[in-house]
Description:
Blueprint: H1 5-14, H2 21-39, H3 73-77, E1 83-84, E2 87-88
Antiparallel strand pairs: 1-2
Helix pairs in contact: 1-2
Protein name: Aspartyl/glutamyl-tRNA(Asn/Gln) amidotransferase subunit C
GO biological process, one term: glutaminyl-tRNAGln biosynthesis via transamidation
Keywords: ATP-binding, Ligase, Nucleotide-binding, Protein biosynthesis, Transferase
Amino acid sequence: MSISMKDVEHVANLARLELSEQEKQLLTEQLNAILKYAEKLNELDTDNVEPTSHPVPLVNVMREDAARPSLSIEQVLLNAPDEEDGQIKVPAVLE
Length: 95
């Protein structure tokens, strides 16, 4: 597979890019070099390689979610600027 100058012009048009003839030529060469390099992957024997979703094994580093005792209402309200009926009172934001 290769990229033609027409393909580069089409993509540049879609991206609303104005390219000079020299830029079009350079991009055509660079994209073809990338595709040529990618085609080398087809030479690899992957028959006995198991498909993976990630190149390295991942493990969950988070701790298990476990219920623990929390602060009492009295302790929480010690830090509240104002309190009413056992709840933190804040300024009204809606009228």
